[in-house]
Amino acid sequence: MTDFVERPTALGDVAARTLANATKTVPMLSAITPRWLVHLLAFVPVEAGIYRVNRVKDESSVEVACSQLDERELPQTFVDYEEWGREYRLSAVNTVVDVHTRVSDLYSSPHNQIREQLRLTIEIIKERQESELINNKEYGLLHNAADWQRIKTRNGPPTPDDLDDLIAKVWKEPAFFLAHPLAIAAFGRECTRRGVPPPTVSLFGAQFLTWRGLPLIPSDKVPVVDGKTSIILLRTGEAKQGVVALFQPGLPGEQSVGLSVRFMGINHKAIASYLISLYCSLAVLSPDALGVLEGVEVDKYHVYA
Questions:
Q1: pTM of the entire predicted model
Q2: End-to-end distance of the chain based on CA atoms, in angstroms?
Q3: How big is the chain by its Cα radius of gyration, in Å?
Q4: For the ranges 42-51, 73-82, 156-165, 266-275, which has the lowest average pLDDT?
Q5: Separation of alpha carbons 54 and 48, rounded Å
Q6: C-beta neighbour count of 241 within 10 angstroms
Q7: What whole-number distance in Å separates Cα of residue 125 and Cα of residue 258?
Q8: CB–CB of 214/175 below 8 Å?
Q9: Strand partners, 209
Q10: For 266-270, which contacts have Cβ atoms below 8 Å and span 24 or more sequence positions?
Q11: By C-alpha distance, which of 204, 233, 229, 236 is closest to 292?
């Protein structure tokens, strides 16, 4: 007795695919985020990688007269400056991308291998830039808030009252809150519990929660440690004595603000090398331009009837 084998009556999928070309995407990198902070900061060009913030020495010593109806002598005064302001220096985020010329020559259709290697590396470098702007121990936002501009939550989770207290610290034209997405979600829960759902605003084609008209900008670079994080509020712009980002214009091989890509040559193993450099820093022009709400708990939930 022989087994019966049914013969195919038409070309099958597996065989057909040998003549078909799959439509291929570029490599997807899940670590890429919108990086809203970089979009919202005002960038100021610097010379020789140095930015000095000069401040007034003692504002209370300036004397003025008001509504004098007699002939009393007017006060004589002047505005004194600090002798040497704080200097901010640009820091560099660097890496070298290596691509074998055989790979780039033979396997660059439909997507160019060199271009994709550079694109993905630049995305990772820009993610690191945002992290440095928030966490760098020399110039990052979390490390440059003055002690008197730091407050703690009343009970752990971020409430409308806590954000109001933070606004009171940065009351001169605050621009936006910056927080981890978990902190924004926790704030939303506290608002829902109180029956005051925060309105939303559209920026850059995306929707953001707001409080008192100020958007809550998410960034996963704001650290969460043991279920606690911080919420930052800042004023931006040089004219407003706020927070500014710094960059060096006119870099060799400049691709975008503060970013350069330079070809370093091909070695004896036929490997082409490209140097990618991003120079960045951040300056707080006035202490009241930056406030931080600390001790924000992100893991408290409520049961709604």
A1: 0.91
A2: 72
A3: 28
A4: 73-82
A5: 17
A6: 18
A7: 12
A8: yes
A9: 200
A10: 266/101, 269/100, 270/100, 270/101, 270/102
A11: 233
